[in-house]
Amino acid sequence: MLIVQLILESLVDAGARFAKAGEFTERAFINGKLDLVQAESIDALIRASTESELSLIHNHYSGHFSNSIKSIRSSFIELLSLIELELDFSEEDVEFASREKLSILLTSTESQLQALYNSFKRSHIIRDGFSVAIIGKPNVGKSSFLNLLLKKERAIVSDIAGTTRDVITEAIDIGGYNFVFSDTAGIHKTEDP
What we know:
- The structure is a single chain.
- By secondary structure, the protein is mainly α.
- It has 3 domains: 40 residues, no CATH class; 62 residues; 54 residues, no CATH class.
- It is 55% helix and 10% strand.
- It is built from 7 helices and 3 strands, in the order ααααααβαββ.
- Strands 1-3-2 form a 3-stranded mixed beta sheet, sandwiched between helices.
- The protein is flat and about 85 Å long.
- The model has no long low-confidence stretch (mean pLDDT 85).
């Protein structure tokens, strides 16, 4: 490693510099080699914590998301042009686009938007995880259950009711998916209004 360090020092002394974080991605974006979604996917790829996130990010990086957006944009442009054409010549007895064609195109565009929305919802769940609150009466084993899932002592376990006062939240990878468990205080009636 000494030789590598000496070479790097020589290069820096000669005027070279280390690349900043994200510099190569930025250059690729500026030069049109990556679109914005692909550039952001590189950062997300580095920060991914589950296999499902990696799969989702790979789809974004490979252009699936961008292609969906381009397809929807194309459909809107076609729909808009047909409607404008009809409006421009509405006083004449010439029909440029059948109502059936407009209806089919509109239905297709709506389906594309719905698919994109559903994909966004799935992506959000994959990225942020499934939120699970562990709730129940005091001293029924909620904290023990969280510790069992985590395979470590994260929550305090005691025979004394009311030990858990603050919510303890931890993320766990289960089967390639992120689950965010929150251990809560026991549910009981209080005399303090």
